[in-house]
Amino acid sequence: MVLESPQWGGFHPFVREFEESFAAYQHSAFGISTFNGTVSLELALDVLEIGAGDEVIVPAISFISTATAVSRVGAVPVFVDIEPYSFNIDPRRVLDAITPQTRAIIAVHFGGALCDVDELGRICRDHELQLIEDAAHAHGSAWNGKRAGSFGVFGSFSFQNGKVLCAGEGGMLVTSNQHLAEHARSVANQGRIPGRSFYEHHRIGTNFRLTAFQAAVLLAQFERLPGQIETRTHNAALLKDQLSDLPEIVWQQVPASVTESSHYLLLGRLVRARITRDEFQRKLAAAGVPCTPFYPHTLYDNPVYQMEKTCRVAPCPIAEECVRDAFWFPHRLLLAGEETITSAAKAIRSALRK
Ligand SMILES: Cc1ncc(COP(=O)(O)O)c(C=O)c1O
């Protein structure tokens, strides 16, 4: 339908339809699509007028965009530690890192399990900070029944190739604040405002628009998302159950308040095992089980943040331990049939025997 239409770009009705459906699914009033989940974070910071002289608290463990979005608007990312087994930003470490320059916290719902949004929300209220949820992993995830992206002033999603809802590339900001939504949409659409001429630009905007082709793919994929989440949830429980006697694996600890998880990643840490995490991963790869040996370093250990004065770093012993002993299985493993899960469990068990 898109192919045959005169509109392949962001003004095709499919784009708006996807924005409305996805935002509603995430329990937010407005969705502003973008061409990826990196620029959607930059857009959120831009709309909140966060820039030079400001600090934004981010977790030491995430994909690089969580931090570079802050740097690209001219603010300073402040890296704080994660919790030992949830892999999410530690609210106590957030409190320690607040200064008069702090304007916002970017909370990443790592692997699909929500951060403690109650505690982060309280900190934000007490210290007059903005909470931005980087929900790139958390399509469909919920905290006490309320979905990711609806707790902060903005929630940012990615539809990049590896995500549970994907169109190769794509992103979206969700919010329930109408004023901020209008502002974000205007920036993402060349400073235009609704009802005015196409060549009238009211602010310095840019073009972050998603294409109609991507929206068409996303609308189709979106219908399958709830069923896929169910399958992954079932298979994650099955795999963990089959390995429950193994003391060497400590799975991601997910608070009871996480009532739904996308299961983007099935995360664990290898503790007191007879082999190293890297040997474990290599043995699994040889057995055909996809496993990623976590991130190779914390965000602040990236060359970009080794340069002087580009960031502030709080002590992050947990993040540094996880770099050595954590791993994840990708969501595609959890979409497999039960036989594949059972044979993956066998391969994991045998990999742990030296
Ligand atoms: C936590 C997190 N934030 C942001 C992004 C950036 O999304 P995109 O690749 O769509 O720019 C990713 C993507 O991989 C991510 O994992």
How would you briefly describe this protein structure?
Helices cover 36% and strands 17% of the residues. The protein is an alpha/beta fold.
Write structural notes for this entry:
By secondary structure, the protein is an alpha/beta fold. Helix content is 36%, strand content 17%. The chain contains eleven helices and 14 strands. The protein has helices at 13-25, 39-47, 65-72, 91-97, 117-127, 178-188, 212-242, 277-286, 303-306, 317-325, 338-351; strands at residues 30-34, 55-59, 76-80, 102-108, 130-134, 142-143, 146-147, 154-158, 171-175, 249-251, 258-260, 265-270, 312-313, 326-330. An eight-stranded mixed sheet has the order 1-9-8-5-4-2-3-13, with helices on both faces. Strands 7-6-11 form a three-stranded antiparallel sheet, with no helix packed on it. The chain has a three-stranded antiparallel sheet with strand order 10-12-14. Helix 3 (65-72) links the parallel strand 2 (55-59) and strand 3 (76-80). Helix 1 runs parallel beside helix 7 (212-242) and helix 2 (39-47) crosses helix 3. The termini are far apart.
Q: Given the helix and strand composition, which structural class is it?
A: alpha/beta
Q: Topology as H/E string? A: HEHEHEHEHEEEEEHHEEEHHEHEH
Q: Report strand %.
A: 15-25%
Ligand list:
pyridoxal-5'-phosphate
Tertiary shape: globular
Q: Please state the oligomeric state of the protein chains shown.
A: single chain
Number of strands: 14
Question: How many individual helices?
Answer: 11
